[in-house]
Fold:
Amino acid sequence: MIRVAIVDDDALIRESLCILLDGREGISVVGLGANGLDALQLCHQCDVLLLDLRMPHKSGLEALPEVLLHTRVLMLTTFDEEQEMVQCLQMGAQGYLLKSATPDSIVHAIVEIHRGNTVFDTQAMEAVRRNLYASGQKLAELSQREEDIVSLIAQGHSNRQIAEKLFLSEGTVKNHITAILQKSGLEHRTQIAISRLKGEL
Structure:
């Protein structure tokens, strides 16, 4: 079972998501919240937290650093918040989808994030790309295989998809990612994608 909590200040959105998601692919919706303060409570009860960005009392962005200490996070927001989008990814959110995403896409993202992968909407990644620039400074020298994996991570592929594309086992892909993190001094998978977009990997 994948325990999911939904935090959004729009009651219609959170109730609709609850109806659409509960019971699919082993998902159980265990809580609903309306702001970042609720997120701080619910993050202790779920495996994946669906989190809106802009909410009253405490925004999703403000709550994100603490929430990430306790659970995995899928951000759900609108397309015009590019600066916040960049901040969320830099903080380490495991997923980022637009609210226009289909129910199937959201279910897929929850399952992949629960497995330890990251999921980013293509449009969201393009928005991030527009907000970053190439620094020209490399964090680490990587092997060709590691370069291939970094590129695929930046494109939003899961470990399983990378394994299929490169004809490797998922375990081997995870080992390569561990090596990339050690070489670069980065802490998590999302930072690999950000660093590639900035030209640092």
User: Anything to note?
Assistant: The chain is about 50% helix and 15% strand.
